[in-house]
Every structure is written in C-alpha cells, then in structure tokens.
Amino acid sequence: MKGEPFVFACHRSSVPGASASWDDSGSFAIYADNASISLEPCTENAVHRVLWPETESPRTIISEKDWGEAYYGKMRKRRIFEAWLFFGDAKQPAWKSMLDHAWKRNYKPGKPEYSENLIWDLSIQYTKKLYAEENGFCGFSIGFCLDREKKNWTRARGFEAGWCGLHFSVSGWLVAWPCAFRLEVLRNRLDRE
C-alpha cells in the first residue's frame, strides 16, 4: 500500500470521476461518468487516471475515522468509454471549463419538492434548535453530531464562523434585513413556534 496512489470512486467528488492539476505553464482537468479517478503528483507533472469499473483502493473510506478493504466493482463488457478532457491557461483554467461543461451536460430543471413556506418553517425550526447560551454568550451552535451510543442527534458544543458554523451567517441574516415588515414577519413566525 505504501506509495500506491489512492483511487476514489466517482461519488467521492462533486463531479463524478473528476480531477484537475495546474502549474505556471497551464492546467488540465478530466471527468468521466461512473468511473473512478486517481491523481498522482510527480516531479515534473501529474498523472491523472480514469478507471472502470468503479474502484476504490488501496482502502475504502467508511467514515471519518474508519477504513475498509479495497473495493473493485463489476461491469458489463462494453466497447465505448467516455471521458472529457480540458486544457487551460491562467485566463481560462481547465477546472473552470470542466465544471461549466459538467454542469451544462448534467443540468436537469426540476420542480421544487417542497413549498417556500414549508422550507421557511423548517429553517426556522432548525435555527431555533441551533440557538444556544454558554457562559453568558448567546449564539448559534456549529451544528449537530450523531451520538452513536444514544443513536440520536445532539447539538454540538461551541460556536464557529466557518462553513459549517452558522453563527455569523444566521446572525448577519437577522441583522441585515432592512425591512421592519420582514422583521415583524420573522418575529410572528418565531412566536408561533
């Protein structure tokens, strides 16, 4: 396993089977549906690999702390395999072209599953559950954690302004509403809960 590049299954990246590399001379990106990807940095360049069938090796990620044995999928015989290659420079990086292409190719307009009112109500419920007071500080918790022993979700301790921490975003959202009418609507909705 030592020195062997990791191979990730297609569902491990935002764009299936995608990787990108760049340096001062240019950039390269690739993606392929239902394929695994491997990226190995070398001294002068990077080696991008697209692998079929879906594979994950030398280990499989089970959770943030657990690893499993390698996975080697199966597939029917086929003659055609597709991958999209992108080359770029400083003005138009390859990863940007790859993301634009993948988005346009896979975009499917859809009808929202839930109404705006239901989403609003669920957002208020969740925000209220994040609200916490600790040592005289009032704010919004960083989120919820799964308690494996109790088999339920509990509010995480602490406050954070990072991507998972909602303290700044929710606080800013509440302060930034310029219209008193909207604030009143918010207060009414909070009072209803």
Condensed summary:
The chain is α+β, with helices and mostly antiparallel strands and 193 residues long. It contains four helices and eleven strands. It is extended.
**Which segments are poorly predicted (pLDDT under 50) over 5 or more consecutive residues?**
177-181
Strand content: 25-35%
The 3D shape can be described as: extended
How do the helices and strands follow one another from N- to C-terminus? EEEEEEEHHEEEEHH
Number of helices: 4
- Based on CA atoms alone, the radius of gyration comes out at 23 Å
Structure classification: alpha+beta
| Overall average pLDDT | 79
Oligomer: single chain
**Overall strand count:** 11
Strand order of the largest sheet: 1-2-7
The residue fraction in helices comes out at: 25-40%
Q: Mind describing the biggest β-sheet?
A: 3 strands, antiparallel
The count of domains is 2
Beginning-to-end CA distance, first to last residue: 54 Å
Give structural attributes.
single chain, alpha+beta, 30% strand, 193 residues, 3-stranded antiparallel sheet, two-stranded antiparallel sheet
Describe this entry's structure for a reader.
This protein has 193 residues and is of the alpha+beta class. The chain has four helices and eleven strands. The chain is extended and about 60 Å long. The protein starts with 18 loop residues before the first strand and ends with a helix. The model is unreliable at 177-181 (pLDDT under 50).
